[in-house]
Amino acid sequence: MGYLLQYGGGIRGIIPAIILAEIESRTKKPISQIFDLMAGTSTGGIIVAGLCKSNKLQYSANDLVELYQEYGAYIFQSSFWRKSIASWLSGSQYSYRNMEFILNKYFGESTMADVASNLLLTSYDIHNSCEFFFKSWKEKNIKLKDALRATTAAPTYFTPKRLKISQTERVLIDGGVFANNPAACAYASGKRLFPNDEIILLSIGTGGTDRSIKYANSRKFGKIGWIKPLLNVMFASGLDCVDYQLEQVIDDKYIRIQSQLKVASTEMDNITLKSIKSLQQEANSMIEDNQKLIDKLCDFIS
User: Fold this and answer.
1) What is the active site of this protein (predicted)?
2) How many angstroms from the chain centroid is the CA of residue 20?
């Protein structure tokens, strides 16, 4: 029983898309035929949803690489006002309409039921103060494009997505605020769906970053100064914690492909041509650095 996990990172989603294209090339199988459950947060949600969309418009990993290459600049297109200091006081940095246009282009009217593999997408409901999981085996009538708008609604980047689900009003934001790596969430759902099966779990990152904080700097932080560093610490430690937990629970059946970014920008909205090329370079380096893990996965699959 195989599970695939993808997590957030904006335009850096091009990295796992390229790695998955390599796996498809090696196995000669579409990703949806390899994994029984696919989970994603934010940009990772777009990738897994595209890979397991089950009608004639199902996408290959290479198709999703092209999505980032062709439409990344459009998704993260910002007006002068949104770039100005005024955006710190009112409104999101990018228009949700651009994101919705691309999601409609790729997913149309397809629903959560229109998938070839079990699909799990994470989001957080700020209206009801609770996490919310879009599950293809439960929320079958919800449109994929709406679920993806919710899981990609990163605070300050895009406005929240308002949805009425089972008579409940929900205001949903990016699931990365609590599950930037959705591996543990997927493992828990998988144990419920397939209680008697052995689990092989693949988790692909979007590139690690060095967010070290020097003591001399930290002791100068006030309430405002701590905001960004603290968020970075919380996200990074959350990822590491999930890795530790799953390594203890399923040991060598947990395959984690991730490397520190060496040349690419760490920013999730850097959509310059130079940045795109650097991300492609990072993806190829990650494939090279993780040859043994990829071989191990392909051996499990075969």
Assistant:
1) 42 (nucleophile), 174 (proton acceptor)
2) 13
Number of DSSP helices (H) and strands (E) in the chain, helices first: 12, 8
Give the 3-state secondary structure of residue 41.
Answer: coil
Amino acid, single-letter form, for residue 175: G
Cα–Cα distance between 291 and 59 in angstroms, integer?
Answer: 25
Mean pLDDT of all residues belonging to the chain: 88
Span 94-110, pLDDT tens digits:
989 999 999 999 999 99
Asked whether the beta carbons of 76 and 9 are under 8 A apart, the reply is no
Which among 10, 45, 204 is positioned nearest to 121, based on CA atoms? 45
Distance CA 53, CA 72 (A): 21
From CA 50, how far away is CA 145, in angstroms rounded?
Answer: 11
Q: How far is CA 82 from CA 11, 12, 89, 227, in A?
A: 19, 22, 10, 21
Q: Where are the domains of the chain?
A: 2-301
Q: Residue 221 is encoded by which pair of tokens?
A: 């932080």
Q: Which residues are catalytic?
A: 42, 174
Q: Which two tokens stand for residue 39?
A: 């989970």
Residue 7, classed as helix, strand or coil, is coil
Q: What CA–CA distances, in Å, run from 209 to 97, 193, 216?
A: 30, 34, 21
CB-CB contact of 24 with 52 (8 Å)? no
Q: What is the pLDDT of residue 56?
A: 59
The dotted CATH code for 2-301 is: 3.40.1090.10
DSSP for residue 13: G
